[in-house]
TrEMBL record:
The chain crosses the membrane at residues 31-50, 62-83, 95-116, 122-141, 146-164, 176-195. It catalyses: ATP + protein L-histidine = ADP + protein N-phospho-L-histidine. The keyword Transmembrane helix applies. It holds the Pfam family HisKA. This is histidine kinase.
């Protein structure tokens, strides 16, 4: 359990935690005020039947204390009833004031009952200790609130003790005892705050995990449905053409076309399955083999490979960083990132179009841009761009099919390298993918 003795709960949870414990404090003060109102009512009614003042000293102080419990409980009940019937924007602020004031008056009233015994708190601090303990355990207080209550209660104790006819040694003993109890109150209150904050954060994290699991489960169901649909088409075609080949005698050239179509359907299905397996494998970071590589050298290898593939159908330009740029990479997997983005640029860029790769070193990161002057990405597709099997998957300018996994795999690989990927695009103006990678010194 993390202790929050001198600080609040983490900022990410603080606002929700305050809302949570405010509701708890309201319930706690309702319970405490009604219980002590009932006890006070019983004592005060019985005092009308029996003369306590003739039985022991200090009965008048007890009577004042129980009257305070009764009046305070009644005030809390009335205020609570009004706030429930007429809620407003200030309701929670008023409730906060109520439970702080109740905590203070309750502790002081318990202190008064301690004074009732032989005129000196040190003779019996049981009620004083009980009052502080109940406030510390039942009411969740922020650090500033605990300090404020501690100072107010101690100041009231000091002022009250000076009114008693006590010797110096008694005065010192009373002050020492009160300081000890205030420190005890502070410690118990902060432990209570820490326990409830940890419990709240654990519940919230469990809720977040459950939502994440639900989202993953839904995504898995959606992906399976899409995969089943995408695989069903090629397999249906294969089955239909295989039956035709079995039942009918056809010209040799038509039979060759049938065989080519079957091969194409098999290759399409194989691509979908391989991409799925690849995406699952890349999500496990332990499968990565990170080593320092010069990113300039990696770009040179990529440029050489793609210049051979493009055969001057596109203009590929690579601008490397001035000096060697060592980055922790899994070279094979990062080359897959670049291949995916360049392939994507080729797919959506007309013949003789331009593809530019730009590498730049900043203070603590590397910026890598892959730009093209192709058809760009429609506005409604951008939010789905990096999602697997999303509707952002579309055919290229020459009708190339898209499974819809390439950019999802790309983002996964970039994030596994500790980087980020963003896109800047204008329809019919081109697209730029920006990758940032951290520099590990």
């Amino acid at each position: 359990m993390k202790l929050y003795l001198y600080r609040s709960a983490p900022q990410a949870y603080l606002a929700d935690f305050k809302q949570h414990y405010l509701l708890h404090n309201i319930k706690a003060v309702r319970l405490l005020s009604r219980v002590w109102f009932g006890i006070a009512a019983i004592v005060l009614v019985s005092n009308m039947l029996f003369d306590y003042s003739s039985q022991f000293a200090g009965a008048a102080i007890y009577r004042y204390a129980y009257s305070s419990y009764a009046i305070l409980g009644l005030l809390v009940f009335v205020a609570d009833s009004v706030l429930r019937r007429r809620p407003s924007a200030q309701t929670y602020s008023v409730y906060r004031f109520i439970y702080l004031m109740y905590a203070f008056v309750f502790a002081i009233t318990c202190l008064l009952m301690s004074v009732a015994v032989q005129g000196s708190p040190i003779n019996n601090m049981t009620m004083y200790l009980l009052g502080l303990s109940l406030v510390a355990v039942l009411i969740v207080l922020e650090l500033k609130e605990v300090l404020l209550l501690s100072l107010l209660v101690e100041a009231t104790f000091v002022a009250g003790v000076t009114l008693l006819d006590l010797t110096m040694d008694r005065l010192i003993m009373n002050q020492t005892g009160s300081v000890f109890l205030i420190l005890f109150f502070f410690l118990i209150s902060r432990l209570n705050y820490s326990f409830r904050a940890n419990h709240f954060m654990q519940l919230r994290q469990i809720e977040e995990k459950n939502l994440e699991l639900e989202s993953l489960s839904k995504a898995k169901t959606d992906i399976l449905g899409i995969v089943a649909h995408d695989l069903q088409g090629p397999f249906n075609n294969i089955e239909m053409m295989a039956k035709l080949l079995q039942k009918k005698t056809m010209p040799e050239d038509q039979e060759i076309r049938m065989h080519e179509m079957i091969l194409k359907c098999c290759q399409s299905s194989k691509t979908i399955i391989n991409d799925l397996l690849e995406m699952a494998r890349y999500e496990q970071k332990e499968n990565f083999d990170f080593e320092p590589h010069d990113l300039n050298q990696v770009l040179e290898e990529i440029e050489e490979d793609w210049q051979l593939q493009l055969k001057e159908t596109r203009q590929l330009s690579v601008q490397k960083a001035g000096a060697a740029l060592l980055i922790q990479l899994d070279k094979y997997k990062f080359k897959r990132v670049l291949d995916n983005l360049i392939s994507n640029a080729v797919k959506f860029t007309q013949d003789k179009g331009r593809i530019d790769i730009f590498l730049q070193k900043n203070e603590q990161e590397v910026l890598l841009k892959i730009s093209d002057n192709g058809v760009g990405i429609p506005q409604d597709m951008r939010q789905h761009l990096f999602k697997p099997f999303s509707r952002a998957g579309r055919s290229g300018v020459r009708g190339e099919r898209s499974v819809g996994l390439g950019l999802s795999i790309t983002r996964t690989l970039v994030e596994q390298h500790g980087g980020t990927i963003d896109v800047d695009t204008e329809q019919q103006q081109g697209t730029t993918f920006c990758i940032t990678l951290p520099i590990h010194t």
